[in-house]
Design a protein that fits this description.
Elements (H helix, E strand, L loop, with lengths): L1 E4 L3 E4 L5 H17 L2 H18 L1 E2 L10 E3 L6 H7 L9
Helix pairs in contact: 1-2
Length: about 90
């Protein structure tokens, strides 16, 4: 799966990492719903760090279609709300 972090680029991520990412995504959704700004910041950073750690960066000149688009690290709570689907940022 190709994942884009807005403002950073793309990484190739094995599908078997989705379970770990979904746990963070569920936590992020809960914090957003409760308006927990500090928790939201912490969990968004953890989610993006996990994608960077588990994935392999694609070259800057590669333009693969992204199957998943994640917000930039400095995205606001409202910006991330607009990106959400019923499943959160990560389907499943």
């Amino acid at each position: 799966m190709i994942v884009r972090i807005m403002g950073e680029g793309q990484v190739r991520l094995a599908d078997d990492h989705l379970t770990e990412l979904n746990k963070l995504d569920d936590e992020l959704l809960t914090e957003m719903e409760s308006g927990d700004e500090a928790g939201f910041r912490r969990t968004l950073a953890a989610l993006l760090d996990a994608v960077r750690r588990l994935g392999t960066p694609l070259p800057d000149d590669a333009l693969e279609p992204s199957e998943l688009i994640l917000p930039a690290p400095d995205a606001s709570l409202d910006e991330v709300r607009q990106m959400l689907s019923d499943d959160g940022l990560i389907p499943g």
